Amino acid sequence: MKFVSVRDLRGKSADIWRELPDEREMVITSNGRPVAILAAVNESNLEESLAAFRRARAIDAVASLQRRSVTAGTDELTADEIATEIAAVREARSR
Length: 95
Description:
Radius of gyration: 21 Å
Number of strands: 3
Largest sheet: 3 strands, mixed
Structural class: alpha+beta
Helix content: 55-70%
Distance between the termini: 54 Å
């Protein structure tokens, strides 16, 4: 996978667009840190590519929630404790 700086993306965009179909994806960096992924798509795979990207983001969000749950100690709540928490939140909302 190729890494491209934001500066290169601005200054050499024609070269990058030309290389993208062969590379398939490139990581865009700012100050040496990844900030974006540039992926080659076309009309025939656009929807499939977007769906895959959205699935990956959803999986990452769930993993993040799970890590926060472990950190907060809420990963071991029982089903009854979860139901009680949900009921308390619903009650507070209805006021």
